[in-house]
């Protein structure tokens, strides 16, 4: 596994419809990329609760921040911080969030230097 | 012997007067005659009824138990034909004669019908009673051109109501500007622009000469020769006091029944109150002075004569959602000594004018923003010297909220202008009776039961004073769009909003969430009969990929098997597909179908192709299945062909979304093998007839379905099911199952609105179902025309390592 962080070109921005998410295999695990209209964000595609596919969730907001609601049991995850916004009992849990950039219509995700063993 | 008090008239003024009488020490034996069959209701609120915002129950002021509790004999549906002031009797049209010692005339008023030809044609209505409102609701609808004659308060409210019911509405007004009795010309033109912006056509300065048409009205012709089309005409051109009874009895009558300041007529022991009266040459049409009259009369008739009645400055408020109009007092600035203070913002549609005389407020006109109406009304009533406030007349130091406003009021200040309830009385009632809800406050003080414009103020008082205040939260959909669902439904329907995003942007926070987005998706779909802009980002994942997500993120696939009937060929294809896509389990469901569990999202389109069967919608809040027994085709007990009927029913309803999942069943005999009586909609065959039952459940709770109707033919049974189905689609809240819906509305109301509704209402329900159906299709056909990466697993453009 590489030690240094790097940007990976993922897909054309039109492949991720407005206000929806899509899952992408990124070296052994899945990242959920969301199109928030004007910007893209990415988090692990695994709800910290039951492992549900966050990319299949509905995008919303909590305290002014964008969120996604897991389709399995309605846990709400902040798309900027990766923190759990609901339920309160899950507030310690967190998913990783990734930097995303869009250049020339291509969405890229920054893979951090060290990934914890999964 | 107890004194007998007869009251002719069961309307707002008469009954409010009786309420006042009951507050005094008295021992009357009271009889109330009402020509309407309904109990005492709030006539002012008929406009919200027509606009679909309120139901009859919402506007009842005193129900049957009130009459009973006070020992009042109510003769409803009994029109009084004559009164004899000498013999002291009242005779009803049915020939019954009732003796009285004292009599109160509260006969109200009738719509004024201007002189024109053709008023007797069918399709020509007035708007005065609940029955009028009902008739208008029943007969109005999309595609109907309606004309309202009269651009006053009632005419405009009626116009908006008809428009909400779907009509294409024109208001025809005699004067040069709208509501000219309450607004000056500038205010009238501001109001006209508001009405036009809502899509209502306004024609001012038009005098109708004739209603055209052969039998049924087809249009209007004006005196200037111009004609317009109209299949429905509502005349709202004013009222005239109902004074004929009094006139025939020899009482002094001019325009109305003449009364003195204690509401006594020219005949001893006979009083009059309300719109039928004339006092100092003045007649009345707004509610506040009538309640005042009632108080004075009650005092007089019980021997507690106090200060007499004096006509105060009338105030009027238009009850149209989104159009704020308020007017009070004398706003004519051309009167000597009058000076006007004005504020205008044409872009915002706001116009305010105060007219002052001798440094005191004489009149006020507000259009577009009536939030300060209360302040002005109080200035008018108290005659406050405004010298110190001159700089803040139109731009007051902003009241942060209602509570602030209420705190500043003095105890003797009026909160409810209609019923004359002061702040002090409300606070005392709250303390004395431990009131903590609006309902209790209304019941105890009657505050805010008139025009309702002081509701906010009452609520803030309650909040500030009552230690145990309970807010009656109208259940809003969610914080993103803080409206109750019925309001939201009305907004979407009348504003013709067709996308989730437009609803969120205009009425919400612009973002939405997993609660409101699917709900609004449903509402825009139903309101437009499937003509909405489908936004998959607002749908739950199941409705994005037409399969049911499982706990491991894979999906289950349930093909449609109408009536639970399949073929060897279909079974072979199902078996092949199950193997080809490594289905983890093949399961026969409780809905007489087959569930294929553990399918990957990217395999869905190909699997559907291999199956060659339509979607069973097992994942959707939609039509699941029609379960059937084998019926008369095979069963030796079967009396009806349940399979053919079930398959036909499924065909007619499939592919449509419903507020929650909808399960149906058809059984061929009362043995009920397919459990139709615990389904959302069930058809139960009997010898020579079908029972159509609705609202059954066999889930967390078990509920036996209610009988909607019993019919002879299969065609009628199918139609009854369709009527209920579409009614449920249009009127239930999102995520409300039929069994909650049926309990909430009551089966009687549902019957009235569906199978026993007038023919045209039924046809319109069916028409909307048909339109929705025409626009729907098997969701699995999306495999031929998928959306961007709908089923595709995206692979990164660059290799990971």
Structure notes:
The complex is a heterodimer of chains A (118) and B (801). Chain A has 118 residues and is mainly beta. Chain A has strands at residues 6-12, 21-26, 29-35, 40-44, 58-62, 65-69, 76-78, 84-86, 97-98, 100-103, 106-111. Chain A is built from no helices and 11 strands. In chain A, the strands form 3 sheets. Chain A has a 4-stranded antiparallel beta sheet with strand order 2-3-4-9, with no helix packed on it. The model of chain A has no long low-confidence stretch (mean pLDDT 89). Chain B is an alpha/beta fold. Chain B is built from 25 helices and 43 strands. In chain B, helix 1 (12-23) links the parallel strand 1 (3-8) and strand 2. The N and C termini of chain B lie far apart (106 Å). At the A-B interface, strand 1, strand 2, strand 5 and strand 6 of A face loops of B.
Compact summary:
Chain A is mainly beta.
What are the defining features of this structure?
heterodimer; A: 118 residues; mainly beta; Rieske Iron-sulfur Protein; 4-stranded antiparallel sheet; 11 strands; 0% helix; 45% strand; B: 801 residues; alpha/beta; FAD/NAD(P)-binding domain; 5 domains; 5-stranded parallel sheet; 22% strand; globular
């Amino acid at each position: 596994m590489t030690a240094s962080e790097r940007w990976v070109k993922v897909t054309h921005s039109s492949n991720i419809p407005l206000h929806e998410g899509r899952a992408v295999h990124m070296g052994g695990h899945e990242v959920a990329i969301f199109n928030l209209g004007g910007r893209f964000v990415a988090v692990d595609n695994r709800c910290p609760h039951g492992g549900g596919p966050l990319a299949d969730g509905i995008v919303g907001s909590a305290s002014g921040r964008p969120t996604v609601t897991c389709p399995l049991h309605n846990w709400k995850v902040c798309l900027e911080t990766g923190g759990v916004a609901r339920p309160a009992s899950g507030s310690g849990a967190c998913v990783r969030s990734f930097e995303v950039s869009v250049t020339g219509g291509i969405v890229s995700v920054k893979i951090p230097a060290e990934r914890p063993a999964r | 012997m107890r004194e007998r008090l007869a009251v002719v008239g069961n309307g707002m003024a008469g009954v409010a007067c009786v309420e006042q009488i009951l507050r005094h020490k008295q021992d009357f034996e009271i009889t109330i005659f009402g020509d309407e069959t309904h109990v005492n209701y709030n006539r002012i609120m008929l406009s919200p009824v027509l606009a679909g915002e309120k139901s009859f129950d919402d506007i009842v002021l005193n129900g049957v138990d009130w009459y009973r509790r006070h020992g009042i004999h109510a003769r409803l549906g009994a029109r009084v034909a004559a009164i004899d002031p000498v013999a002291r009797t009242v005779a009803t049209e049915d020939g019954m004669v009732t003796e009285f010692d004292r009599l109160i005339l509260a006969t109200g008023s009738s719509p004024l019908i201007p002189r024109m030809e053709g008023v007797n044609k069918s399709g020509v209505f007035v708007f005065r009673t609940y029955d009028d409102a009902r008739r208008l609701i029943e007969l109005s609808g999309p595609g109907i051109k309606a004309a309202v004659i009269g651009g006053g308060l009632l005419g405009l409210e009626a116009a908006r109501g008809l428009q909400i019911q779907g009509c294409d509405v024109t208001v025809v007004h005699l004067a040069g500007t709208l509501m000219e009795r309450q607004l000056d010309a500038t205010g009238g033109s501001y109001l006209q622009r508001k009405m036009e912006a809502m899509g209502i056509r306004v024609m001012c300065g038009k005098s109708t000469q004739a209603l055209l048409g052969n039998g049924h009205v087809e249009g209007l012709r004006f005196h200037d020769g111009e004609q317009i089309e109209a299949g429905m005409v509502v005349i709202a051109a004013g009222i005239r006091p109902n004074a004929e009874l009094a006139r025939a009895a020899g009482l002094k009558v001019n325009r109305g029944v003449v009364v003195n300041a204690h509401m006594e007529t020219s005949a001893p022991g006979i009083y009059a109150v309300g719109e039928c009266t004339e006092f100092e040459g003045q007649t009345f049409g707004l509610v506040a002075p009538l309640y005042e009259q009632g108080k004075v009369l009650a005092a007089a008739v019980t021997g507690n004569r106090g200060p007499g009645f004096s006509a105060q400055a009338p105030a009027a408020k238009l009850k149209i959602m989104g159009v704020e109009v308020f007017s009070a007092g004398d706003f004519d600035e051309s009167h000597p000594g009058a000076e006007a203070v004005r504020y205008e913002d044409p872009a915002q549609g706001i116009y305010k004018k105060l007219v002052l005389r001798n440094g005191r407020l004489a009149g006020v006109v507000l259009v577009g923003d009536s939030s300060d109406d209360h302040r002005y009304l109080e200035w008018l009533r108290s005659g406050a010297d405004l010298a110190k406030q001159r700089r803040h007349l139109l731009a007051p130091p902003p009241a942060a909220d209602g509570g602030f406003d209420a705190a500043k009021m003095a105890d003797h200040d009026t909160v409810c202008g209609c019923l004359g309830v002061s702040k002090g009385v409300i606070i005392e009632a709250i303390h004395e009776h431990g009131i903590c809800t609006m309902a209790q406050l209304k019941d105890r003080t009657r505050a805010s039961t008139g025009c309702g414009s002081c509701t906010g103020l009452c609520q803030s008082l309650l909040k500030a004073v009552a230690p145990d205040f309970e807010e009656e939260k109208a259940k809003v959909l969610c914080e993103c769009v803080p409206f109750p669902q019925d309001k939201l439904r009305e907004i979407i329907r009348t504003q013709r909003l067709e996308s989730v995003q437009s609803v969120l942007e205009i009425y919400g926070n612009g973002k939405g969430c997993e609660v409101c987005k699917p709900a609004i998706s449903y509402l825009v779909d139903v309101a437009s009969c499937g003509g909405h802009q489908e936004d998959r980002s607002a749908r739950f994942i199941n409705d994005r990929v037409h399969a049911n997500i499982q706990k491991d993120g894979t999906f289950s696939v349930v093909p449609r098997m109408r009536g639970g009937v399949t073929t060897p060929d279909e079974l072979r294809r199902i078996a092949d597909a199950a193997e080809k896509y490594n289905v983890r389990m093949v399961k026969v469901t409780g809905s007489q179908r087959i569930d294929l569990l553990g399918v990957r999202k990217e395999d869905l389109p190909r699997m559907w192709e291999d199956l060659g069967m339509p979607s069973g919608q097992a994942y959707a809040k939609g039509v699941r299945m029609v379960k059937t027994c084998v019926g008369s085709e095979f069963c030796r007990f079967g009396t009806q062909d349940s399979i053919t009927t079930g398959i036909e029913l499924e065909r007619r309803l499939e592919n449509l979304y419903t507020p929650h999942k909808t399960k149906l069943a058809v059984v061929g005999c009362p043995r009920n093998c397919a459990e139709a009586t615990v389904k959302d909609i069930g058809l139960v065959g009997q010898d020579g007839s079908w029972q159509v039952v609705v609202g059954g459940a066999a889930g967390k709770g078990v509920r036996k379905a209610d009988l909607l109707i019993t019919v002879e033919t299969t065609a009628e049974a199918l139609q009854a099911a369709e009527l209920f189905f579409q009614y449920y689609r249009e009127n239930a809240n999102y995520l409300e199952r039929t069994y909650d819906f049926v309990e909430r509305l009551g089966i009687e109301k549902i019957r009235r609105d569906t199978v026993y509704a007038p023919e045209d209402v039924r046809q319109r329900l069916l028409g909307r179902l048909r339109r929705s159906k025409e626009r729907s299709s098997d969701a699995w056909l999306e495999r031929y025309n998928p959306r961007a990466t709908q089923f595709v697993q995206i692979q990164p453009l660059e290799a990971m390592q």
